[in-house]
Every structure is written in C-alpha cells, then in structure tokens.
Amino acid sequence: MAALRYAGLDDTDSEDELPPGWEERTTKDGWVYYANHTEEKTQWEHPKTGKRKRVAGDLPYGWEQETDENGQVFFVDHINKRTTYVDPRLAFTVDDNPTKPTTQQRYDGSTTAMEILQGRDFTGKVVVVTGANSGIGFETAKSFALHGAHVILACRNMARASEAVSRILEEWQQGAATTVYCAAAPELEGLGGMYFNNCCRCMPSPEAQSEETARALWALSERLIQERLGSQSG
Fold first, then answer.
1. Which of 175, 166, 229, 226 is nearest to 197 (CA)?
2. Residue 195 contacts residue 169 (beta carbons within 8 Å)
3. Is residue 208 very low, low, confident or very high in pLDDT (cuts 50, 70, 90)?
4. Fewest C-beta in 10 Å: which of 26, 41, 93, 197?
5. Which residues does the UniProt record annotate as the domain WW (predicted)?
C-alpha cells in the first residue's frame, strides 16, 4: 500500500478513475493513451489497471475530429459550438486484450517415429543409423526405411544387424496398402494426379515434378513400346 500511495494510485475509489496528474487522451485512429503531467510522459496502459483501451464506434452526430498545430487531437461540437480535447467516446471505451500467439507443440513423449515421418518421402536419401539393431536405433532405421530412404545399419554384431534387417523387411508386406487405399478409398474417387506414400498424400520430389523429365520418360516409354511391338511382329 505504501508503494501505491507513493505513486498516487490509492487516492481514488474507482479502479478506472485516473490518479491525480493523469489525463486520458485518444489518437487519431481511436487508441486510448495516458498522459502523466507530473513526470511529463505518456503510456498506452492504464496507470492503475494496466489495461489498454480503444474507443468504440464513430463520433456522435454533430462532432468532428481535428488536429491542432502541436499535432494533438481535439474535437469540435458543431451543435453546441464548442471544442474540447476530450474524446466524447471515452465513456464507451472497450478493453483491448491482444492475445499472444501460442506455440503448440506438435509432438510429445508419446509420439512415435512413424507419426513424425507421416507423409514424408525420403526416396533417394541415404541414412546411416548407429546402433540400429535395437531400441531407438532400430525404430529410427525402420521408420526411415519404410519412408523410402536407403538405410545403412551400423552395428557391432553382424548377426543382430541381419536380424534387424529381416524384421524391417517383414514390414514391407504393408507396402501394397497404399496402392489398395488409392484404388478403393471412396474419398479419392474421381481424383488423380496426386502422390501418396504410406496411405498419406505428400509432395513428390522436385525431380518428379520436372516437365523436362516427364517428357523424357514419355518419349522413352513410347520408344520401348514401339521396340517391343516391333520385335513381336517380327
């Protein structure tokens, strides 16, 4: 209380009432600020509540906003033929509580490696995983392998490394799932020209989107088909 008394903040009954020496003003665009005449400074926050405010709505009928030679906004009441530096809308201010953007964590301790890599295509990438025959290393190697990467398992024990490779290869039986999904999923009926990996749509590699490469592959396909048909007719 002593600090409040020293700052002059305990002299008023209302929370919104300004302490002695303070004045409430508005900017041209309607934001409220506070002038401390004792310390000759201004601030956006209310000296007692810490809130920011702005005026609501347009000026009342017959009022006009002007600026004096010092750049300070004043208001003209044409009906009563008077001027004032007090915005008539100050009685109808609203609190401005800007919400800070919250950073949401995408993954946590329960997230699996497969969930993190969902929709990603690592075709053409080489991944070296140490200790890949068990634990975190194995899950890392398996996840990258199932997402198209060429994975090198760096293990001390050759037998355990071979066992890990076998376990990963067993999961390739799931590879046809994407083909079956694209062929049978009702939500994909009538759609085309999209790339799916592990039953999820993902962006193809830049090379796969190259028009030049597409034309070259088309020409190669035509040539191979013609050669095949020619050999059969001969």
1. 175
2. no
3. confident
4. 41
5. 16-49, 57-90
Which structure tokens are listed for 61? 């009928």
Cβ-based neighbours of 94, under 8 Å, separated by 6 or more: 53, 54, 55, 56
User: Please, what is the Cα angle at 193 between 188 and 199, to 5 degrees?
Assistant: 50
Structure token digits, residue 131: 């200790």
Q: Give residue-wise pLDDT tens across range 33-69.
A: 888 888 888 888 888 888 888 887 778 878 888 888 8
Is 145 within the bounds of a domain?
A: yes
Task: Please state, rounded to an integer, the average pLDDT across all residues of the chain.
Answer: 77
Express each pLDDT in 67-113 by its tens digit: 888 778 888 988 888 888 888 887 767 777 654 444 455 555 566 77
For 65, list phi and psi in degrees, rounded to 5: -100, 130
Structure token digits, residue 113: 């490696």
CA distance 93 to 198: 55
- Which token pair is 202? 């993902």
Query: Which of 167, 163, 161 lies closest to 143, judged by CA?
Result: 167
Q: Which residues span the domain enclosing 87?
A: 20-93
> Count of domains in the chain?
2
